[in-house]
């Protein structure tokens, strides 16, 4: 055999070997290729900001928006798939249709996940077990609860006469302030982080039908504790330092339609918690000690148009030098202030006072609040938490045992001019672990509404919420909060 023949044979062997390697790498030779297909479908019913986590054969994607989806792990022809919901969005039930089967000779695109059904009920205890009917229409629950009712969240429009709860958005988190928008809807402020499952934080406008107004989008950076509407301007106070992209700290004037901050140059050095408007003056209270570079302890007033600081400076104080304001109300040229203080407007006044709206000086009104009612007594602090003016009467609620020179437990009506007690005198009862306390109240033509820590008013059960006759102070059979 010649050298040329040996060389040619070696070349043929090398060529065959290379071909075999190539065929093996691309699935030829003795191996067989595995054909795989995608599994997916469509998600619907998610609100803006909501997500749903799905699961199928070890693949667990989180879907962030409505529309088509596909699992990243592909499956072989003839293999089984079973799509389930691993984690549904808060307040929603997600149903899977056409979620199981065998992969054929094409991609699976028929899985349908519908997250549009809201969980609109809640229990007053713990749920330990659940079971869903075969048609997915009935959910059976078991646990340590005694009531099941509509899920309302932290804001509920209630009929003032019947106590019926009107439809509204479900707000997740605290609501600290609300103001009617003049069109049947509401502005809400608080610490909430979701409304109807969407990521609406701290400030929202609800339309008359209870839905969220998407055109009102202020996006404050932190909690809103107070809101007040004046014409086409919404004033808001809170713990925020930014609204949208604008650097706005603690107090702001917003376009009432869009929520965009107006050019209103007020400078407050800490949280604003309460607002009241009278004419062209905005009165506000909070934790601040300076406004527009000038000293103002916890109370101040600015011009609603220019933000200029007014001379109004009541300077509330208590024995420790630090006061707290819990409520504001306006009646004509008089500003009523409630909280924890012992002097204000240049006079000795405990927990509630009436101030001249121009000078800030205390008027002759003196409700003589005394006698904290906490149990144990060591926890006692005499405070007024809430105040409302109705004609010549001032309704106050808080933690006290005497008002206007008469025994009054946690709630009272006093004369607007003198502060002396009026005959109106509800009988609030709490359990053996504490005395009653009223933290909020409102008044209409014939009823005083109160909320707080109590179980009954007289013989009428009223768990923390009651409607009291303005004439007799008797509680109506109205609504029982749970």
Q: What would you say this structure looks like, in words?
A:
The chain has 482 residues and is mostly beta strands. It folds into three domains: 1-33; 36-118, Immunoglobulin-like (Sandwich), CATH 2.60.40; 157-469, YVTN repeat-like/Quinoprotein amine dehydrogenase (Methylamine Dehydrogenase, Chain H). Helix content is 5%, strand content 41%. It contains one helix and 44 strands. The protein has a four-stranded mixed β-sheet with strand order 5-2-11-9, with no helix packed on it. It is elongated. It starts with a helix and ends in a 13-residue tail after the last strand. Mean pLDDT is 88; it is low at 1-30.
List the helices and strands and how they pair.
Blueprint: H1 3-25, E1 36-37, E2 39-44, E3 52-55, E4 62-63, E5 67-70, E6 75-76, E7 80-82, E8 84-87, E9 92-97, E10 100-102, E11 108-118, E12 121-123, E13 126-132, E14 139-144, E15 148-150, E16 171-172, E17 175-180, E18 186-190, E19 194-195, E20 203-206, E21 224-230, E22 233-238, E23 251-255, E24 272-278, E25 281-286, E26 290-291, E27 294-295, E28 299-303, E29 324-331, E30 334-340, E31 343-344, E32 347-348, E33 352-356, E34 383-390, E35 393-399, E36 402-403, E37 406-407, E38 411-415, E39 428-429, E40 437-443, E41 447-453, E42 456-457, E43 460-461, E44 465-469
């Amino acid at each position: 055999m010649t050298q040329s023949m040996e060389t040619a044979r070696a070349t043929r062997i090398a060529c065959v070997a290379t071909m075999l390697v190539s065929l093996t790498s691309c699935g030829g030779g003795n191996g067989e290729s595995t054909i795989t297909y995608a599994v997916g479908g469509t998600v619907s019913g998610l609100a803006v900001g909501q997500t749903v986590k799905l699961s199928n054969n070890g693949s667990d994607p989180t879907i962030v928006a409505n529309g088509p989806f596909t699992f990243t792990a592909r499956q072989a022809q003839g293999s089984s798939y079973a799509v389930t919901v691993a984690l549904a969005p808060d307040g929603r039930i997600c149903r899977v249709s056409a979620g199981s089967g065998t992969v054929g000779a094409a991609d699976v695109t028929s899985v349908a996940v519908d997250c549009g059904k809201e969980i609109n009920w809640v229990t007053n205890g713990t749920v330990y077990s659940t079971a869903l009917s075969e048609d997915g229409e009935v959910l059976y629950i078991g646990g340590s609860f005694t009531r099941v009712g509509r899920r309302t969240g932290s804001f509920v429009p209630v009929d003032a006469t019947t106590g019926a709860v009107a439809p509204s958005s479900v707000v997740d988190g605290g609501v600290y302030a609300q103001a009617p928008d003049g069109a049947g809807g509401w502005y809400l402020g608080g610490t909430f982080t979701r409304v109807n499952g969407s990521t609406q934080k701290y400030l929202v406008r609800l339309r008359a039908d209870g839905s969220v107004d998407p055109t009102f989008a202020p996006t404050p950076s932190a909690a809103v504790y107070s809101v007040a509407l004046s014409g086409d301007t919404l004033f808001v106070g809170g713990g925020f330092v930014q609204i949208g992209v604008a650097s706005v700290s603690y107090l702001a004037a917003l376009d009432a339609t869009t929520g965009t901050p107006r050019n209103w140059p007020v400078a407050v050095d800490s949280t604003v918690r309460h607002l009241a408007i009278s004419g062209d003056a905005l009165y506000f209270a909070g934790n601040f000690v300076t406004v527009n570079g000038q000293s103002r302890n916890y109370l101040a007033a600015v011009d609603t148009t220019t933000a200029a600081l007014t001379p109004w400076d009541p300077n509330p104080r208590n024995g420790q030098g630090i006061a707290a304001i819990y409520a504001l109300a306006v009646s004509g040229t008089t500003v009523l202030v409630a909280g924890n203080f012992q002097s204000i407007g240049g006079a000795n006044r405990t927990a509630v006072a009436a101030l001249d709206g121009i000078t800030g000086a205390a008027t002759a009104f003196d409700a003589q609040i005394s006698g904290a009612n906490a149990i144990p007594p060591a926890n006692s602090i005499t405070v007024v938490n809430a105040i409302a003016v109705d004609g010549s009467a001032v309704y106050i609620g808080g933690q006290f045992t005497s008002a206007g020179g008469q025994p009054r437990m946690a709630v009272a009506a006093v004369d607007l001019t003198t502060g002396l007690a009026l005959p109106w005198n509800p009988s609030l009862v709490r359990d053996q672990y504490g005395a009653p306390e009223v933290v909020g109240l409102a008044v209409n033509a014939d009823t005083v509404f109160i909320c707080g820590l109590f179980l009954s008013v007289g013989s009428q059960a009223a768990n923390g919420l009651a409607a009291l006759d303005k004439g007799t102070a008797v509680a109506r059979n109205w609504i029982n909060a749970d």
